[in-house]
C-alpha cells in the first residue's frame, strides 16, 4: 500500500496489488485440490447433469473455496506476518489491505452461493454456504487458535467439496458421498501434522496450538499412524459399496499401504530431528495420495462407463 498527498492536503491510499495478488488470496494450491475432489463427487454421483450446469457448479465451488481462502487470510493476517511460510502473502506483505481482502472474500462467497443456487440447486448452494462458513468462521476464527484438535475438527471444511459436487447432481447426500468426505477428513490430520512437525517454531511464535506443540512429537507421530491407517481403509471403502471396482480397490490399497509406511517412517524419526526429512516426505506424498485416490475413482468410473 502506498500513501500520497493530493492537492487538497488529503491522503490517498493506492493499492499496489496486482491480479496475481488477488489470485493468491484465493489459495490456488488448496483450491486446486478442492476443485478436483468436487469434480470427482459430481462425476461419481448417480444420475446426470447438463454439462454446462456441471461446469457452472464446479466454477461456483472453486469461487466459494477461493472466498473462504480470502476470508482466512483476512482474519489470519496478524499471524501470517510472523510465520515464515506465510509472511509474503499479499496482506502481511502490504500489497492488499485487510478491508479489501474482507470485501473481496464476502463478494465472492455471495456470488458463488447465489449462482450455484440459481443455476443448479439450492441444496448444493446451501451446502457450499455452510462449507464457506465452517472454514472461514468456525475453523479460522475459533478452532485454529483454541484447540490442538483444530485440524481434526476443522478438516471437515476441506472434506465437504466432493459432497457439494455430489449434491449438485442429486440434490442430496448418501453413504457414498459420506465415504468420499471421510477420505479427505481422515487424511487431513496426518497431512497437516507432518507440516506442523517441521514448522513447530512458527506455530510456537504465533501461539497456535498445533498438536506437536501441545501434545509433543511422540504423541503426534502415534496419532499420525492411526489416522494414516484409517485413511487407507477409507480409501478402499468405495469398492466395498460398489461405487468403484475391485481394480480400484487394489490401486487404493497400494497407495494406502505406502501412506501408512510413510507415517511409520515419521514415527521412527528421532525426536528433535532438525532436518525432519521423513515428515517433509510424508507431507509431499500426502498431497499426491489424495490427488491419486480421487483420480483413481474418476478413471475407474470412466472405464466402467466405457467397458461396462
Automatic annotation (TrEMBL):
One of its GO terms (cellular component) is plasma membrane. It comes from the Bacteria. Keywords: Cell membrane, Heme biosynthesis, Membrane, Transferase, Transmembrane, Transmembrane helix. The chain crosses the membrane at residues 30-49, 55-75, 96-116, 122-139, 151-172, 178-198, 224-241, 247-264, 285-307. One of its GO terms (biological process) is heme O biosynthetic process. PANTHER family: 4-HYDROXYBENZOATE SOLANESYLTRANSFERASE (PTHR43448:SF7), PROTOHEME IX FARNESYLTRANSFERASE, MITOCHONDRIAL (PTHR43448). Carbon 2 of the heme B porphyrin ring is defined according to the Fischer nomenclature. Converts heme B (protoheme IX) to heme O by substitution of the vinyl group on carbon 2 of heme B porphyrin ring with a hydroxyethyl farnesyl side group. NCBIfam families: cyoE_ctaB, PRK04375.1-2. Belongs to the UbiA prenyltransferase family. Protoheme IX farnesyltransferase subfamily. This is Protoheme IX farnesyltransferase. It comes from Martelella mediterranea DSM 17316.
Amino acid at each position: 500500500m502506498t500513501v500520497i498527498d493530493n492537492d487538497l492536503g488529503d491522503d490517498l491510499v493506492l493499492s499496489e496489488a496486482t491480479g496475481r495478488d488477488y489470485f493468491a488470496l484465493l489459495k490456488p494450491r488448496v483450491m486446486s485440490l478442492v476443485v478436483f475432489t468436487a469434480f470427482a463427487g459430481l462425476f461419481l454421483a448417480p444420475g446426470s447433469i447438463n454439462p454446462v450446469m456441471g461446469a457452472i457448479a464446479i466454477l461456483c465451488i472453486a469461487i466459494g473455496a477461493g472466498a473462504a481462502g480470502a476470508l482466512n487470510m483476512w482474519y489470519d493476517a496478524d499471524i501470517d506476518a510472523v510465520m515464515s511460510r506465510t509472511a509474503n502473502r499479499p496482506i502481511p506483505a502490504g500489497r492488499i489491505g485487510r478491508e479489501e481482502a474482507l470485501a473481496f472474500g464476502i463478494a465472492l462467497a455471495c456470488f458463488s452461493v447465489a449462482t450455484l443456487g440459481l443455476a443448479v440447486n439450492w441444496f448444493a448452494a446451501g451446502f457450499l454456504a455452510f462449507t464457506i462458513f465452517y472454514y472461514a468462521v468456525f475453523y479460522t476464527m475459533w478452532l485454529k487458535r483454541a484447540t490442538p484438535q483444530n485440524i481434526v475438527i476443522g478438516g471437515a471444511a476441506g472434506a465437504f467439496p466432493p459432497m457439494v459436487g455430489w449434491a449438485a447432481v442429486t440434490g442430496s447426500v448418501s453413504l457414498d458421498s459420506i465415504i468420499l468426505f471421510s477420505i479427505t477428513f481422515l487424511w487431513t490430520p496426518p497431512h497437516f501434522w507432518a507440516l506442523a512437525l517441521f514448522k513447530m517454531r512458527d506455530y510456537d511464535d504465533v501461539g497456535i496450538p498445533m498438536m506437536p506443540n501441545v501434545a509433543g512429537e511422540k504423541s503426534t507421530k502415534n496419532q499420525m499412524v492411526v489416522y494414516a491407517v484409517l485413511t487407507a481403509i477409507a480409501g478402499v471403502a468405495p469398492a466395498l459399496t460398489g461405487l468403484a471396482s475391485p481394480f480400484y480397490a487394489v490401486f487404493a490399497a497400494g497407495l494406502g499401504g505406502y501412506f501408512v509406511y510413510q507415517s511409520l517412517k515419521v514415527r521412527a524419526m528421532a525426536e528433535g530431528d532438525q532436518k525432519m526429512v521423513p515428515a517433509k516426505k510424508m507431507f509431499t506424498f500426502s498431497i499426491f495420495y489424495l490427488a491419486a485416490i480421487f483420480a483413481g475413482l474418476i478413471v475407474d468410473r470412466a472405464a466402467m462407463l466405457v467397458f461396462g
